[in-house]
Amino acid sequence: xxxxxxxxxxxxxGPLKVLDHVDLSIDEGQVVVLIGPSGSGxxxxxxxxxxxxxxxxxxxxxxxLSVTGGxxxxxxxxxxxxxxxxxxxxxxxxxxxENVAFGPRKVRKLSKEQAEEVAIDLxxxxxxxxxxxxxxxELSGGQQQRVAIARALAVKPKVMLFDEPTSALDPExxxxxxxxxxxxxxxxxxxxxxxxxxxxxxxxxxxxxxxxHGKIAVDGHPREVIDTPxxxxxxxxxxxxx
Length: 242
Ligand code: ADP
Ligand code: MG
Known about the structure:
Blueprint: E1 2-13, E2 16-27, E3 31-35, H1 42-49, E4 57-62, E5 65-66, H2 71-80, E6 81-84, H3 96-106, H4 112-125, H5 141-153, E7 159-163, H6 171-186, E8 190-194, H7 198-204, E9 207-212, E10 215-220, H8 222-227, H9 232-241
Parallel strand pairs: 3-8, 3-9, 6-7, 7-8
Antiparallel strand pairs: 1-2, 1-4, 4-5, 9-10
């Protein structure tokens, strides 16, 4: 069953066309890896899914709800689609535990004790239970990103969106974040991941999309299309990331 459906979706910023009549149906449990040149619209595509950007044409349905369906539906969609950014975006004045407990308290209206229980479990899941009392500045980049993943999971999203989650990390810290993502995929989470990590794409991805000028240029099985790029632009692109 499809959980995300772009229907002739377009997005303009003024005169600039960033998404151009995109048709894309993502099924539950799929791990879609999104690649493409800088400026091709990858982040915008992700941001439209959880309503951080407003679409300007067509429709976009997330778990049966349209992003154009008004404030209430949009709130619901935001809750169902967790997002992880390149720059972690943790609240600097809150501890790891408080960062993760924030959503359950505000969105799920849990008590402080219940929210902290949820948060501890999630910090444990990402291997950071012992860092619960630390502030973001006291954590490595990889640890901060794992807290950010735990925070996104804390409101029980149905879909997780990752926008270059390891691009700001030193090589030795990337793997700990990728491992957490791999684990999530194993558990059946529906994921859309913008990344340059082609070995992750091959090992964990179930589908690979190459975007170009706001359109889907290639859509296929990761191993097949990475090993044998179906067009020269994708081939060029892969030579630059690998
Ligand atoms: P990618 O993530 O593939 O690098 P983006 O989706 O970030 O691409 O951006 C696609 C295009 O849209 C770029 O030309 C970018 O400059 C432009 N863009 C993105 N966000 C905005 C914005 N808020 N206002 C104006 N232009 C934007
Ligand atoms: Mg981007």
